[in-house]
Predict the structure.
Amino acid sequence: MKDFDIATIQRDRFEISSLLGGASGFEVSKVEFSEEDVSKGHFPHYMLKEIYEQPDTIHDAMRGRLSREEGTAKLGGLDMSNAELRDVDRIILTGCGTACHAAMCGEYAIETLAHVPVEIEFASEFRYRNLPMTKDTLVFCISQSGETADTLAAMRESQRKGHRTLGICNNVASTIARENDGGVYMHAGPEIGVAATKSFTSQVTILTLLGLMFGRIRHLSHSEGLHIIDELEALPEKVTRILELSEHIKGIAEKYASAKAMMFLGRQFNYPVAMEGALKMKEISYIHASGHPSAELKHGVIALISPEVPSVFIAPDDAVFDKNVSNIEEVKARQGPVIVIATEGSKKVEKIADDVIYIPRCADFVSPILTAIPLQLLAYHTAVALGCDVDKPRNLAKSVTVE
C-alpha cells in the first residue's frame, strides 16, 4: 500500500482508497517466504540463525549475477545500459546504521575495482543537505526493509533534484523498491533479529558486484574480472569455515563479557567493519564500544587503553598488515588486552595478541564480508553471556519508520 491508503476489509473482499481522494492503484504480490523461513528452527535466537544463514544469503546475492563468459557482473534491475553506466562520473551511497557501514565498505570496493569516485552520506544528513551533485551522479539508497524513513526521504530528495536514484533492499514490496528508478534485490530472506547480520554481508556483496560491473566497462581486463569472480564465488565455503569457530569465539566472549567498554580498530577495507563490529556490540550487549581507523589510535583514543578495555583489531594479511601489528604492539605496551581477527597462518599476530580468531585467506576487496562474521558472533555470545535479550534489544526497532 502507498502512503495515505486505507484498506476496508470485509469477509469476502477488500477495497483500497486514498485519503488524497479516489481509488488507489495497487498490485497484489505473493509472500515468497515460508513458515520455516520465519521460525528459529533449532537455534536459540533468530540472530544466531541469521548469522548461520550467511553462506546461503551471500550465494543468493550473487546467484545469476556473475558471468564468467564476460568476466563481469550482470545487474539487470538497474535498468541502465553500459553506455549510461559509463557516463556515471560519481556515485553517492546513502543509508542508516548498518546499511551506512555496508556503504562505506562499498566505497572502498567500487573505488578500488572501478576507479569511480564514491561518497557516503548518512541518509538523515543527505535529506537536509544541499549537496553539490553533477548531472552524471548516480545515487544508491541502501535499506534492508525498504521502509527506513530517512533513507526513503533521501531517495525522494535525490529524485526531486532530477538524479537517477537506485535502491538496494531486501523487501520486494517495500516503498523504496516501488518508488526507485531501478535497483538490486538482496534475496536474503526475512531478517527478524533487530541487529542486522546477513543483510550487512548481502549489501557488501552486492556493492562488490557493482564494483566489478563498473570496473569491467572501464579498465578491468577479462582475466581480472575472472579473478574477482573466483574470489566472490569462494565466499560461501569460507564463511562456513568461520562459522565452525563459534565455540572458540564463545570462549573469548565469556572471557571479556565483564568489560565496561571495548574498542574496535581496522584499516582501509576493514575500518567500516570496525564500526560495524562496535555497533553490534553496543546494540545487543549494551557494552560501550567504538570503532576507529587503527592509525588514529595515537590521535586521541590511545588515552582509553587500560587493562579493563579490550581492543579488537581487524588485521588480515593485507597491504597494511605490518602497520596494524605496530598498533597492536602499542596497545600491548600499555597493558591493553587485544583480540585480533587475522588471516590463517599469521604467526606474527599469535605472538603478541591475547586471543586470535582466524579467517581464510582472501582478496582485500572481499575481506569485510569475512571479517564481519567473527564480530557478529563475538557480539552475540557476549550478549548471551550477559543474559541480554539478543533478538529484541532495548530501545531499538527493526525498521525505523519515523524520523
Observations:
- Residues 164 and 370 are 32 Å apart (CA to CA).
